[in-house]
Structures are given as C-alpha cells and as structure tokens.
Amino acid sequence: MAKSKKTAPQLKVPAEPITEFEVTEGGTLRMADYAEAETRAEFYEDVADQWEGSPLDLSDAMDECQPLAWAVNSIYSDFRDEIVADIGTAETDAKRNKRRIAVLKERLKKLPEEPEEGASDWLLGLTTSEFETNVVPHIQEWFSKPPNWNFEDDYLPQTGTAQGAALEFFRGMDADSFELLGVDIVEGEHPGSTYYAAELRGDIDAANRAAEAAGLRVRFVKV
After folding, report:
1. Phi-psi region at 151: left, alpha or beta (left = phi > 0; alpha = psi -120 to 50)
2. Is the separation of the CB atoms in 50 and 61 below 8 Å?
3. Which of 1, 143, 152, 222 is deepest in the core (most CB within 10 A)?
4. pLDDT tens for residues 7-59?
5. In 3D, which of 30, 13, 14 has the Cα closest to residue 22?
6. Where are the domains of the chain?
7. Cα–Cα distance between 111 and 80 in angstroms, integer?
8. Closest by alpha carbon to 41, among 51, 30, 33, 28?
9. Distance between CA atoms of 57 and 48, rounded to whole angstroms?
10. Nearest to 122 by CA among 65, 62, 34
11. How far, rounded to the nearest angstrom, does the alpha carbon of residue 169 sit from its chain's CA centroid?
12. DSSP annotation of 31
C-alpha cells in the first residue's frame, strides 16, 4: 500500500497593518499616531548632518536647502554690518584711526552689500578657525529651532507633519482606490494658497465600510 505524501504546512502571510487616519471637522486627513518633525534638523534631515565639516560642505548644503542659504546670508549680513559699524566708530577719531579705517574700508569693498552676491565667496574664504567660531554655532542653533512657517513652508518636506504624511500616502494610492474611499487631494485652495492636504469628503463610517469591502488597509477616525 502506497504511503500518502505529507503536504508541507502552509505558512500564513501576515496581513498588512491597517493605517489609521484622523479626520478633522473640516475633513482634513492626518496620519494617526504620527511622530511629527519639530526642529529644522528633523525637517531638513537630508542636509542636517552634512554641512558641519567645512565651508565647502556648508556651501553644498546651501545649494540643496534654500532656507539654509538664507540663514548663512543672514550671518554674512551681520558680519558686514559689524564692519560698517566699526568704520563709523573709528571715524569719530579719524586722524588717530586713519590706518584702521583704511583697512576696514578695503575689507568692506570685498563684501557686496547683497548677501546673494557675496555670502558664498565669503563663506568659502573663511579659515577653519573662523568657520568654527563665527558660523558653526549659529547654524547649529538654526537647525535646533522649529522652522519659520511663514517663509519656509514651500521648502518643508510634506512628510514632516501628520497632515503631509497623509497627503503623501494617498498620493501614492491608485486613483480608483481613493475615489472609492471618497478622498480628495487638495493642492492649494486658491492661487497662492499653501494648503496642501488629503480630505475625506464623505461620511467616515461609509468610508470605513468601503475600505473593508475593498480590502483596503486604511481606516478613518474622527477627532
């Protein structure tokens, strides 16, 4: 009598986790339990650990991150303003400070008034000591603070916030699926608007039923 072959046990593939989204009163979606970025170092993580080695490293990082370039421009402007102030102080006794005034004015001539024209060359001309003393502490402090949303909003990665993470999630979903759920992608409510979000336009319970019926691993909760 032939022996029956034993079939190998079937391994169960674990189901994908369900991603939950909070729905605000206005319908804006936020990824639930999302660890939002708080500091510039967390938002601009691609350059936050690449700038500190040398003036050239910082210059390269500035090319990738416009708000960082603005921060360096500000340091440059402050440095130039200090020279202007020193000249003014020295000129109160111009006869005694003739040589100092000449040196300061010669230095000032090499520094264009517009930081966009002078900051990069100034930075690359710094010695290691000058860079570490006059620039590094300021940029470290800049990265440690939250971004200025009024000026940096267009440069901040969407995934830094729960709202942005939800937007990126649904942007990556096929159109039929998020249409089935009743989700809209809003990219500016009006010309010049900085509001970008995924919104649930219908009922939360209906969206959850649709997701379950279609096997979509998303759920919505009201906040």
Report:
1. alpha
2. yes
3. 143
4. 666 666 566 899 999 999 999 999 999 999 999 999 999 999 999 999 999 99
5. 30
6. 19-36+161-222, 41-154
7. 7
8. 51
9. 11
10. 62
11. 18
12. E
